[in-house]
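Re-run requested by the PI after the first attempt was lost when the workstation crashed. Everything re-entered from the original request form. Ligand of interest: pantoate.
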Amino acid sequence: MLPVIVHSVNELRAMLPENKHVALTPTMGALHEGHLSLVRHGRQLADINVVSVYVNPLQFGPHEDFSTYPRELEADCARLENIADIVFAPNDAELYPLPQTVTITLPPLADELCGRSRPGFFQGVATVVCKLLNCVRPQTAIFGKKDFQQLFLVQLMVAQLNFPTKIAAMPILREADGLAMSSRNAYLTSDERQRAVLLPNALRTAAAAITAGEKPTTAAATVRQQLQADGFVVDYVECRNATTLTSTASGDIVLLVAATLGQTRLIDNIEIRCPNAAKRELA
Ligand code: PAF
């Protein structure tokens, strides 16, 4: 069955009885297998499986791709056949009837990594996620680990603001050659698409080197050099503590990267379990 498309918050709430397990997968549409894996997880958990499709203006900078971001609601609903019950697709007037003067303030981490080159991005994400959680009131909301920093900040917001929602974190889904699935991969030319795989390859090589004992900062520097040599414009390559996202802590590591290929910004990450994690210094 195709999901029911709902545009208004009132209509949505009327369809969600309180005694049912509701799952929400928030998306901006242009759904790919990565999104569908999140929605399938929701299907397993929930009585009512909701997917929101909304391109959130608050999280785009003035020179970013808000106006060109793919909007394909009908095709998205077809992709969700038999796995979602409801697609919540509000328009701007429904979600932001007034200028949004109340927003979520996040810790300084929101201005690091992706936040450094995308000021206000995570505040926009957190604010819309907060609104979506309040509209849908799900028991579970599902996010992918590809957006590792986003996931971390959403988890922090939900914990610190006492949302009753449980956040489910799902693994990155990759194309056959290893490129992390993303709606923005559609922007890559065929030549760029072939070269894009060098990014996950570099991450895997670095992870193996770190596991074998290389200093994480050295491995990160090598990834940066490799990507630059391969024609990427590197925004950041950083090793962080995988649990706290701090750079000075020790522990299990996540190696995070953002780099632009042509016009397309790609992000990816790899988690590295360190058996001697407690002793390892990242910086
Ligand atoms: O990850 C995304 O697609 C978006 O940032 C989200 C969580 C749907 C908020 O607009």
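Saved to the shared folder this time. The chain has a mean pLDDT of 95.
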